[in-house]
Amino acid sequence: MTVTLEPLRRAHIPRCVEIERILFVGDGPWSASAFRSELDAGGHYVAAVTEDGALAGYAGLAIAGRQGDWETSVHTIGVDPEFQGRGVGTLLLRALLARADELRAPVFLEVRTDNERAIRLYERHGFDRVGVRRRYYRPSGADAYTMCRPPLGGAEAPDASRAEREEAG
């Protein structure tokens, strides 16, 4: 299976909402209006699209601050269950991290404390647990780890393009 990344567009939103309802059933999946608001806010949102045009996953990075003092936050990563375990989540995360690295910005995120697969993915990409948010997810009341990856840039930034192609192709 080969997927390519492209900017997330409004046309992707209905499928994003369907995937959200599958993945985050007990934790308030995003609505179409939430996705539209995020796109309108100007963050960095990407779609992983298969050769036949199916949306395999999506991810979004919020960017705050000003030049020289940027901060970023992973707002969402969702992979259709049919495509999980094939490197799509890694491809999406690396696309977000590449944008953060261009800005030389730290990256923050929240992840359910029981989502071991995602936690391992984030730790492999340089994230550390920096806190716990009790009852962060609604309506389930599940706890979340806050994780952070320090800013990278220039010569320090990893060249993930080869690994991305291998994992997703």
TrEMBL record:
**Which ranges carry the N-acetyltransferase domain?**
3-152
Q: Which GO terms describe its molecular function?
A: N-acetyltransferase activity
Which PROSITE patterns does this chain map to? GNAT (PS51186)
- Does the record bear Acyltransferase in its keywords? yes
The segments labelled Disordered in the record are: 148-169
Which residues lie in Basic and acidic residues bias regions? Answer: 159-169
Species whose genome carries this gene: Amycolatopsis arida
Name listed for the protein in its UniProt record: Ribosomal-protein-alanine N-acetyltransferase
**Family according to the record:** Belongs to the acetyltransferase family. RimI subfamily.
Its keywords, alphabetically, are: Acyltransferase, Cytoplasm, Transferase
Domain of life where this protein originates: Bacteria
Does the record bear Plastid in its keywords? no
